Amino acid sequence: MKYVLLICDDESVSPTNEELEADPVHQAWWADVQRRGGLLVGQRLRPVVDATTVRVRDGETLVSDGPFAETKDFVGGFVIVECANLDEAIEIAAGHPYARWGGVEIRPVWE
């Protein structure tokens, strides 16, 4: 089963890419996901100030800067993994460093 892990955090305390690369906890998590052999893709997203939201209402395309939701926590990245079951996806999500101060939402892929 494929799962998308939505990595959510508060951007005001989010580490830089350099800090992530130097963080042994993050590197251990990444190595664990790769060791499991289920990693399909993963990518960090640019900050929400770089987001664009598109809505179509009554045939009119509305474009606005920034995220759709007004919230403190934002999706900062995603990882797609293939796991035997939800329990394994939960193990992977629980090991992500952001689960300690943000959250990791697990969503099954609809295939």
UniProtKB/TrEMBL annotation:
InterPro entries the record matches: Dimeric_a/b-barrel, YCII
Limits of the YCII-related domain: 1-111
Source superkingdom: Bacteria
Pfam families associated with the record: YCII
Stated family: Belongs to the YciI family.
Protein name: Uncharacterized protein conserved in bacteria
